[in-house]
Amino acid sequence: NELTSNILLHLFSQYSNQFNTNNLNNVKIILSKLKCISTNQGMKLPQQSYISSANLSKDLPQITFDISSEYSLSIEFLKSIGCRTIDFSITTITNHLNSTDNNQTLQDLIQNLLKQRENMSDTDVNALGNTPCFAGINGETKRNYKANELHFPSVAKEVQWKDLSVIDWIDINPFSQEYIFLKELGVKEAPDFQDLFLHITQEHNQSSKIKSEYQLPPSLIYFAENFRKYYLKIWENNKIIQIPFLPSSSPPHINQSTEVILTIPQLVFKETSPLFPSLLPDVIRCFSHCFDISLLGIKSRPDLQIAFDILIDKQYEILTIESASLYFSYLNKLDGLNKTFIENISKKSFIPYSSSSSYSKPSQIFIRS
Asked: pTM for this structure?
């Protein structure tokens, strides 16, 4: 009930300095999920409850704890468990925007909010960042966005991305308090890597794919130059990449095309191979200037088991008496020959022995002497 909740919150507030950091954080997480805050509209979750002030609408659920009572609570404690101090509803923000000079709306809004930052709880900051009230430009279209949907203008310029959504503040100072505040709200200093890969695909499709004429997509160069700064940690948590973004050559004996293709890191190698795509030399050079491309999981050549599996998948398309020496010679150069591999392939029919696309197991073939 309300009294019990007030007493417990009072105790947590009074003795919070006696908890170790982990225990205190756990307590705050639990409290943030409970309807434990007494308001003028009944018991509410902390994130639904506002610390009373003259600037708040009377329609909002305001906390009714008496700060001077026997079971008093500190405002800082209330903020730490998620209680609100400011209303960032669309209506409130829109009214503010409509009351300012159209040419200065974003700057004026941010500077005004920055003055209130000291009084905001983390929940306030999160709510503000998720409110679509920030003027942004996407190509020639201007509208309001959430902070995490926008980028700083310098990003679009560096990556050469004309229709990237950026804040409508072209000359913002990257060392200013306003810049730091916008970054805290979620405005990005680099595109999400999935979006960047999709843009690489667009740039690739819009240019010549003939090898002799091919130019690396600007977004790929940006990715290489900024990988360590913005993408390394994210990459380590997303090892399986599904969007092809690496310019490569097709296996020459499988695909006679002279066009550049895009591949994923798991299926491309640095060395030319009769079974796998290989990275363009320009791609290897581009990345080598910035970091070791093995950080992307790219190897010089595949393991024997991987190469053999691909050969089996395509054997009816590519494996003939005439081509067998090419592929078996390649497999012979790869690492991974062991007892398990030998036992595995001994059960498969993959050795061509006539022109009629017939295959035998190793135990069924004799070596001519």
From this structure: 0.80
Give me 97's structure tokens: 């925007």
Residues 6+ apart with CB under 8 A from 342: none
User: For the segment 92-122, what is each residue's pLDDT rounded down to a tens digit?
Assistant: 565 555 555 554 578 888 988 898 888 888 8
Considering only CA atoms, give the Rg of the chain. Answer: 31
Residues sharing a CB contact under 8 Å with residue 110, sequence separation 6 or more, in sequence order:
169, 178, 181, 182
Alpha-carbon span 126 to 40, nearest angstrom: 24
pLDDT at site 97: 55
CA–CA gap between residue 114 and residue 126 (Å, rounded): 14
**How far, CA to CA in Å, does 369 sit from each of 77, 128, 362, 366?**
87, 81, 16, 9
The CB density around residue 192, as the number of other CB atoms within 10 Å, is: 14
Please state the domain extents for the chain.
Answer: 2-80, 90-185, 193-296, 313-364
Q: How far apart are the first and last CA of the chain?
A: 93
* CB 321, CB 354: distance < 8 Å: yes
